[in-house]
Amino acid sequence: MSFPTICFYLFSAILVFAGLRVITARNPVHAVLYLVLAFFTSGMIWMLMQAEFLAIAIVLIYVGAVMVLFLFVVMMLDINVDKMREGFWRYLPVGLVVAAIMVAEMAMVLNGRYFRLENQPAPQAVDAGYSNAQDLARVIFTDYAYPFELASLILLVAMISAVMLTYRRRESIKHMDPAAQIAVKAKDRLVIHSIPAEKEESGAESTAEVTK
After folding, report:
1. How much helix, strand and coil, in percent to the nearest 5, is found in the chain?
2. 45 with 11: CB under 8 angstroms?
3. pTM of the shown model
4. CA 22, CA 37: separation in Å to the nearest integer?
5. How far is CA 195 from the centre of its chain?
6. Which of 45, 37, 43, 34 lies closest to 9, judged by CA?
7. From CA 71, how far away is CA 88, in angstroms rounded?
8. How far is Cα 16 from Cα 10, in angstroms, rounded to an integer?
9. pLDDT for residue 79
10. How many whole angstroms separate alpha carbon 33 and alpha carbon 70?
11. Of 66, 79, 106, 72, whose CA–CA distance to 25 is shortest?
12. Is the per-residue pLDDT at 14 higher than 90?
């Protein structure tokens, strides 16, 4: 057995263990940390398959951004774990049925003719300077340019919708209304007050006051 094969089975075992701990850990913070371990292990498997771009993307995007956000949210929320697990055993049969259906569907897909080794093309040798990231970028921005832009637009709409759904206006905090600022005219901002000038006292009156 070659060294890459040993690493593949080792990383696969760690990935399966981390995935199981994500759904069985009692502490939500521990579950998020196990999910981070699962993402890192998936990146290592992508590296073994010579998909460097996907490995870097899963580490930078999911581990570096998404999971850090999840970890902060879980740590900031006061989650009652005992209350969440009250109906665990009651819904366990339904969960097992759904899991069995998913396993059966995955087995049917993996046993299809597209996933059989005899139907797979023989691997071709690549040059030393080959970059799969460059080929992936060329395919995305040429053949799939419009679907890529559509996916980015959908993600942007989802992000704005999430912000608007969770936004709560706090009356105790001062805030500015851009529409009201634009609607203000110059005469509303500038007010001229007429202040009468003070009369200067004569020199004699001042001397008399000092003498008194």
Report:
1. 70, 0, 30
2. yes
3. 0.54
4. 10
5. 60
6. 45
7. 23
8. 10
9. 64
10. 10
11. 79
12. yes
